[in-house]
Amino acid sequence: MTRSQNLAPEGDWVQEGWTHLSGLVDTDLPGWSRVGFSEQDVAGRDWVAQQMRQAGLTTRVDAVGNVIGMLEGTNPSAPAIVVGSHSDTVPGGGRFDGIVGVLGAIEVARTLRRAGIRPTHSLMVVDFANEEGNPQGVKLVGSRAAAGTLSATELAAADSEGTTLADLITGAGHQPDAVAGCRWKADDLAAYVELHIEQGPVMEEQGAEIGVVTRVCGISTFVLDIEGRRDHAGTTSMTKRSDPLCCAADGILAVQRIAAAGGDSVGTVGELTSASPLTNVIPETARLTGEFRSPELAGLKQLQAEFDAEAKVADSRHRTRSTVTWGHTDAPAIMDEQLSALAVRAASAAGHEAFRLYSGATHDSVEMSALAPSTMIFVPSRDGRSHCPEEWTDLADVERGIEVLTRTVLEADAA
Ligand code: HGY
Ligand code: MN
Ligand code: MN
Ligand code: MN
User: Fold this and answer.
1) Does ligand 1 have an atom closer than 6 angstroms to the CB of 361?
2) Residue 140 has pLDDT above 60, yes or no
3) Atom of ligand 1 nearest to the CA of 86
4) Cα(114) to centroid of ligand 1, in Å?
5) Which residue intervals of the chain bear CATH 3.30.70.360?
6) Which ligand is nearest to the CA of 363?
7) How far is the CA of 342 from the centre of ligand 4 (A)?
8) 218-330 CATH pick, 3.40.50.11550, 3.10.20.30, 3.40.50.2300, 3.30.70.360
9) How many angstroms is it from 115 CA to the middle of ligand 4?
10) Is the ipTM of this complex over 0.85?
């Protein structure tokens, strides 16, 4: 490979693919919704598999729905270089989060073919299943299955209607009982590189065209279950009631206060539910779901301890009994410095100065980094908006990112 070799992606193909996937959305939901394991998600992933085959890859779909395409290298016994992302979206999401990385990964294979390059290492292109998570509270489903960290307890986790994650996966035509077979061996993998939109404002503010990620946030999710006492709303004085919703209100503000005090940390509440929707009943129970994120594991643990303590304070204030249940903790994932240096060099070969940055959004790279040296290439997001219909990245930025992804793969292949 030389710096001058044309490794630019075919912009028209990227644009057409993006337009096609943008049409495979649930029109009953706002924004651009292709929710994991939905009918539209299944259709999108079938299309992705078809595109992989047209790009010359051999495809398979594993037991949780990961779509995997292989291009055999000249040394099939060398560990594979993995590129990919996810094509599911949050409900009410946008058209770029994950999708850019999946289209980009396929375009790497197409570009290598156009350029007549057969890599030494096999190239593995992946569209991970349900990165965005589900009402059952499990994120990064496909990459966790591949990393062997998706537990039976999580597959049995149910939403408020009793549907388990295993039911969801089965409903999309897969076999969650066979999750053990999804696991990849670290020895088989040389590197993982994921192209993604930044989803935040930093690159735009800095005028950066290409980002290379240093680390990805850690996440800790929780459920706060609050028990109060069901009583008559008209006859129970304000000093005698035990109202779980008031405790929950304190919990919400505690999330905000604790996260704001923690430097780079953030905290968000997802859903607040109560045992009664009526204004003339003090409900007996309430439930709050939320998450904290931090670049440091110690920071995450500190946030957990502080929230546990705040829940006790709220209980004593409102005469309630709360239980905080912490879900799976994703430790912050540090991107591999050597591989990141190759991505920086690849950016330079494509004519861009790479900007190093932290990711406050989580990614499949978190799970992959436990299996192989991993890094991420970012392209800017307009106004830093993401997980909303306004999410936007110019095609020119996407194309730049894909070229840098292709060049990073070739650098890693030669390393
Ligand atoms: O939740 C996240 O950060 C990601 O976008 N899935
Ligand atoms: Mn994403
Ligand atoms: Mn996302
Ligand atoms: Mn991702």
Assistant:
1) yes
2) yes
3) 6
4) 33
5) 218-330
6) 4
7) 20
8) 3.30.70.360
9) 27
10) yes
Q: Which ligand is in closest contact with the Cα of 127?
A: 4
Query: What is the 126 CA–ligand 4 centroid distance (Å)?
Result: 11
Q: What is the pLDDT of residues 79-111, one digit of tens each?
A: 999 999 999 999 999 999 999 999 999 999 999
Residue 161 CB contacts under 8 Å (≥ 6 apart), including other chains: none
11-216+332-414: which CATH topology?
A: Aminopeptidase (3.40.630)
DSSP element (H, E) containing 128 = strand 123-128
Residue span(s) of the chain under CATH 3.40.630.10 come to 11-216+332-414
DSSP string, 71-88: E--SSTTSPEEEEEEE--
Q: What is the pTM of this model?
A: 0.95
**Do residues 217 and 293 make contact, with C-beta atoms less than 8 angstroms apart?**
yes
Angle at 86 between CA 84 and CA 91, to 5 degrees: 165
pLDDT in tens, 203-242: 999 999 999 999 999 999 999 999 999 999 999 999 999 9
**Nearest-CA neighbor of 129 among 210, 38, 195?**
38
